[in-house]
Design a protein that fits this description.
Layout (H helix, E strand, L loop, with lengths): L3 H11 L3 H8 L3 H15 L4 E5 L5 H9 L4 E6 L2 H9 L5 E3 L12 E7 L8 H11 E12 L5 H23 L2 H13 L4 H9 L3 E8 L4 E7 L1
Parallel strand pairs: 1-2, 1-4, 2-3, 4-5
Antiparallel strand pairs: 5-7, 6-7
Helix pairs in contact: 3-4, 7-8
Bound molecules: S-adenosylmethionine (SAM).
């Protein structure tokens, strides 16, 4: 559970370098992860898709490429991140808090949230709100960081996460603190069965988790 004012400010401070920093830190693997999410969403043939916490639009833009014919909206509460999304070609953007979305009940057939839920103040409330704007039968897809289950991998990853990553990201963005926050947010975020239980508790069903090698991120999907 995060402080929204801190989160908004942290992302505003790195907005213009967010995309390049991501690709450097993940060696480009984040692109493949979003591609996989877009393919999963495409299988449902949704006509209206909402990308929550869209940031600079990577996920929404990937879905525009893959889910041709669908109307895609990206929403985020950080204006400088949304400006980047607009600059990069995302047309439908809405400045809004994910905990209080300005959309009608059941407006969307699919909803994605990538590396966003972890940054929110109240995960349960955010998931309920996502469920509200999804139509019954609509699909929720969450992509976020997790900790590897294998102890050795987890140790190596933690070392990278808490030392090397903030140092590299600090050099690119000048905001080392924002990337120290990343590590602590990953440590406190539920993953695996804990996350599946949380999703189920707010009324979704058919919950599935797909850990991405070597477990540093997981895709969760669920039906409203
Ligand atoms: C790590 S970025 C992810 C951006 C994008 N989804 C991606 O895959 O790169 C997290 C985003 O979540 C947004 N965010 C965090 N809490 C939010 C909230 N309560 N409402 C809307 N956006 C939020 C931040 O502003 C930031 O743009």
């Amino acid at each position: 559970m995060q402080d929204p004012e801190y989160v908004k400010e942290a992302f505003a401070g790195i907005a213009d370098r967010y995309v390049v920093t991501n690709h450097v830190l993940s060696l480009g693997i984040d692109i493949l992860w979003r591609r996989r999410v877009a393919k999963m969403v495409h299988k449902m043939s949704p006509s209206r898709i909402l990308d929550v916490a869209t940031g600079s639009g990577d996920m929404a833009l990937e879905m525009e490429r893959v889910c041709t014919g669908a109307e895609i909206t990206g929403t985020d509460f950080c204006a400088p991140m949304l400006e980047q999304a607009n600059r990069r070609g995302l047309k439908n953007t809405v400045l809004a808090d994910a905990l209080n979305l300005p959309f009608e009940d059941g407006e969307f057939c699919a909803l994605t949230v990538c590396f966003g839920l972890r940054n929110m103040q109240d995960w349960e409330k955010a998931l309920r709100e996502m469920g509200r704007v999804l139509k019954p039968g609509g699909e929720l897809v969450i992509l976020d960081f997790s900790l590897p289950r294998i102890k050795l991998m987890r140790g190596i990853y933690r070392l990278y996460l808490h030392t090397l990553l903030p140092a590299i990201a600090g050099m690119i963005t000048g905001r080392r603190e924002a990337y120290r926050y990343l590590g602590s947010s990953i440590e406190s975020f539920p993953s695996g069965m804990e996350m599946c239980d949380l999703i189920e508790s707010v009324g979704f069903f058919k919950i599935r988790q797909r850990p991405l090698f070597p477990g540093v991120a997981t895709i969760y999907s669920a039906i409203r």
